[in-house]
Amino acid sequence: MTAELEAAGIEGVVAKRAEAAYTGGQRTMIKVKHARTADCVVGGYRPYSAGAGVGSLLLGAWDANGELAYLGHSSGLSAALRREALARLKPLETKANPLRAGRSPGGPSRWSRGRELAWIAVKPRLVCEVGYDTLMNGQFRHAARFVRWRDDKAAGECLEEDLERERRPSSVSPSRRALRRGRSGGPILAPRFIERRGA
Q1: Strands (E), the chain
Q2: What is residue 11's predicted lDDT score, i.e. its pLDDT?
Q3: In this structure, is the dihedral angle defined by the CA atoms of residues 91, 95, 100 and 105, taken in order, positive or negative?
Q4: pTM of the complete model beyond 0.70
Q5: Would you place residue 46 in the very low, low, confident or very high pLDDT band (cuts 50, 70, 90)?
């Protein structure tokens, strides 16, 4: 059913047990969202503002022209991970910006007022897996969540087109009536959908 929801441009549903009655004002239903992950190249980092280590990783993927497109950042790292990331990235620091011109991080916006925007470029060698909610205009809509390092994957395998392919809707979107019925034909979902804004 995940593929059907994706094709319809819906990021999740509010669900309850088929035999359970609706109870107004009570938290008896749950929100079910599709978990998305992506393997990204680390193109730089921002130092942690409150101590030693890495505050956030700057992420990218290779576009069709062989340039590293900026996708967004991953923050909220644990203290141990901040130190580990710095040990991994420090030897890769470079003065050359590996990210594609025009979409590099650090530009002012209404979200970045009063925040430190300086970042340190690194050679695009390391790959990490991150979780994200959705893409908007080719970038993560919100900060991505670090999942793990991908030492088993070459940086050259992280392609922008793979992310674009995942977010591209199907040419035929299922109806809401179809989505409200399980593959066996029985109703399993509550009649309220979470629409993806900006998709």
Answers
A1: 10-15, 30-33, 36-47, 54-62, 68-75, 120-121, 127-132, 135-136, 139-140, 144-149, 189-195
A2: 64
A3: positive
A4: no
A5: very high
Cα angle value 117/99/94 (rounded, 5°): 75
70 touches 60 (CB < 8 A)? yes
Task: Report in angstroms the alpha-carbon separations of 123 from 45, 88, 91, 156.
Answer: 11, 11, 9, 12
Alpha-carbon distance values, 50 to 54, 82, 162 (Å)? 10, 11, 36
Rounded to an integer, the average pLDDT of 26-49 is 85
* Phi, psi dihedrals of residue 140, rounded to the nearest 5°: -65, 130
- What distances in angstroms separate CA 11 from CA 15, 51, 128, 193, one per listed residue? 13, 36, 24, 9
Residue 167 has φ and ψ, to the nearest 5°, of: -85, -10
According to DSSP, the β-strands at 127-132 and 54-62 are unpaired
* CB burial readout 83-94, b (16+ within 10 A) else e: bebbebbeebee
Provide the 10 A C-beta neighbour count for residue 34. Answer: 15
Q: Which amino acid is at 157?
A: E
Instruction: Give 10's strand partners.
Output: 195
DSSP per-residue codes, 128-160: EEEEES-EETTEESSPEEEEEE-TTS-GGG-BH
Distance CA 24, CA 133 (A): 28
Q: Give the span between the Cα atoms of 25 and 22, in whole angstroms.
A: 10
